[in-house]
């Protein structure tokens, strides 16, 4: 979890900082939102959720997005919590979750499911500290409150695309309607940190309101992209769940590309035919991969050996006779020959489209 905040003091000066600690394998990236309010003291929190885990890449990897993020947060990372502070949060968290006190109690159910499926660890170790995934939201919340106290923030806007009930107050009136943050959250931050006003928006609403009320120049297309990304992330979340369940056993728990044993917390789904080249976001085009292979492959096409391996993988999945096998049949064809020809034709079409020379075509 990475929490980014920009505190705007009454004199209009910017104090941009970063509070953070990594709490789960599915890290949260921070987005610093630059808004100029000269008469108030605000904390702006903007959290964007990535659909897949992030891991620490070696310095040899050239990643312009990572480089830009490192530039933005350089010198702005706050102190990580101590082991004692974490234990206090975990102890308090047990009591809070038992009485359904937000935030974070919804994650306790998710953790129990993970235990039963034995697919994810409950604890992430970072710099010799044990971060328990079910308390990630609570750690974030405590850091926010402590920072509000430290800088005497009176007006706080929190931006998050987390949609769980332990953050949002919803009612059923002609369908489900989200009213705002949970009243318990407002009461706690206003009482403990002496905050006067606490607002909470998702990224889409935040951009809309910034454009409408603060006259920030934001393209409508940008807001539409945020909406589309949220919808895609929801769809991808379901697809990832299906893919991991359908492919783990047929791949024998190993990376599709390098055959190394997959780490449950760092298993990526990879599109064999890159989406950037027209590869579909469908089960037949997805495999489980080691993160290093996922990064190295990038937007390159598979080689002929990978194509043969993909065809064989599909047949292993279909042999199971479950819902995933039926899905592959619907997507590729009834017979083995139909499915094989579909993949080969798709591959050859991309080869023709992107050229056959090494300068024009990158093959992994």
Notes on the protein architecture:
The chain has 364 residues and is α+β, with helices and mostly antiparallel strands. It is built from eleven helices and twelve strands. The chain has helices at residues 64-73, 83-98, 106-117, 136-151, 183-192, 203-213, 220-247, 291-297, 304-319, 323-332, 336-354; strands at 2-8, 14-20, 28-30, 42-49, 123-126, 129-132, 155-159, 168-172, 176-181, 197-201, 268-271, 286-289. The longest helix is centred in the middle third of the chain and has 28 residues, at 220-247. It is elongated.
Record the SSE blueprint.
Blueprint: E1 2-8, E2 14-20, E3 28-30, E4 42-49, H1 64-73, H2 83-98, H3 106-117, E5 123-126, E6 129-132, H4 136-151, E7 155-159, E8 168-172, E9 176-181, H5 183-192, E10 197-201, H6 203-213, H7 220-247, E11 268-271, E12 286-289, H8 291-297, H9 304-319, H10 323-332, H11 336-354
Parallel strand pairs: 4-7, 7-10
Antiparallel strand pairs: 1-2, 1-4, 3-4, 5-6, 8-9, 11-12
Helix/sheet category: alpha+beta
Alpha plus pi helix count: 11
Arithmetic mean pLDDT: 75
Task: Kindly state the number of beta strands.
Answer: 12
Computed over alpha carbons, the radius of gyration is 23 Å
What is the string of helix and strand elements?
Answer: EEEEHHHEEHEEEHEHHEEHHHH
Give the low-pLDDT segments: 1-61, 111-120, 357-361
Task: Sketch the major β-sheet.
Answer: 6 strands, mixed
Report the principal-axis shape. elongated
Proportion of helical residues? 40-55%
Strand content: 15-25%
CA-to-CA gap between the ends? 32 Å
